[in-house]
Amino acid sequence: MSVHTPLPRKKTTIASLLASRSSGTPITVVTAYDYPTALTLSSSSCPIDMTLVGDSLAQTALGLPSTTSLTLDEMIHHAKAVARGTTTPFLVVDMPFGSFHISEEQAARNACRLVQEAGIDAVKLEGGREIAPIVRKLTSIGIPVMAHVGLLPQRHVAMSGYRVQGKDVAGAERIWGDALALQEAGAFSMVIEAVPTPLAKYMTENLDIPTIGIGAGPYTNGQVLVWDDLLTTTPSDHKPKFVRRFADVRSLREKAIAAYSTAVKDRSFPHEIDESYKMDKSEWEKFMERRRADESSVKSD
Ligand SMILES: Nc1nc(=O)c2c([nH]1)NC[C@@H]1CN(c3ccc(C(=O)N[C@@H](CCC(=O)O)C(=O)O)cc3)CN21
Ligand SMILES: CC(C)C(=O)C(=O)O
Ligand SMILES: [Mg+2]
User: Fold this and answer.
1) Helix residue ranges per DSSP H, 150-280
2) Separation of first and last alpha carbons in the chain
3) pTM to 2 decimals?
4) What residue's CA is closest to ligand 1, atom 5?
5) What is the complex's ipTM, to 2 decimals?
6) Comparing C-alpha atoms, which of 225, 167, 160 is closest to residue 191?
7) Which of 107, 222, 272, 286: CA 20 to 30 A from 255?
8) Do 244 and 272 belong to one domain?
9) Which residues contact 121 (CB under 8 A, 6 or more apart)?
10) Residues 58 and 151 placed together within one structural domain of the fold
11) 249, 264, 288: which is the final residue of a domain?
């Protein structure tokens, strides 16, 4: 096989994620909110292990102030679009704020909706040991659950903003205790968001499930980034420390739209021959003959 031919890839499974963890192969996760994005993450030239329909959808794609106002119906609408474009990546969806805390029954009903209506592989739930019974319930009915500890954006008000978590002994102990309880409840993997590097390293070394970090340093089993952050799609004055800009898609888009606008205004677009359609001269003449006949009959009325 030539170096230019991408390796054929199979659908990511929980078993293959565990195998990546065991072999020390970093796991790649990117968020997606629509069909074209899902196609890119499934492409054989840039294959990603896991696609996450994150509730960051609220801010990145819908212009909402935070994730807490995103509804389950809105999430399902986007998850369906992402599922249509997803082939090999494992497809995980964030359960929105309020869609799983009320009771185990509510969580099970809504997770089943995501599986049946959107066709996703697993759900992700933000929270600590207090949601362990819900994780256990979903796992027991065959819905894989990804845990999410550390910074919990759905609780940004209670946490007084988006702040690094687990920086002191008490905070680190709480997060480690949460992680153990969630693993024990059956979570197949865990996102660790915005915690100091040594804590995420300790968690990765002492848990049995793959850890996926965001703002958790280089020692987790995998990394996740938000599509819009890594591509720079939107104007933003604030860049969290953990974001690396791998491209500047925003300026590329703006250049293209400016060029289009200029071309329309100076009439260089569309080109009369290359970008427009022809009509046979005889057909055109017959059409004009009929129009003239119609016009003279209107005048003589
Ligand atoms: N575009 C986007 N990227 C994300 O990573 C993301 C979202 N949206 N929306 C939902 C949550 C919100 N997240 C955030 C938002 C802000 C910070 C932030 O400003 N962090 C500070 C930490 C300050 C401190 O405590 O020292 C930073 O400067 O890194 C972190 C995570 C992560 N998620
Ligand atoms: C940042 C990731 C982990 C997430 O939860 C989201 O995009 O909503
Ligand atoms: Mg999220």
Assistant:
1) 169-184, 197-206, 227-231, 249-265
2) 78
3) 0.94
4) 226
5) 0.97
6) 225
7) 272
8) no
9) 90, 91, 92, 144
10) yes
11) 249
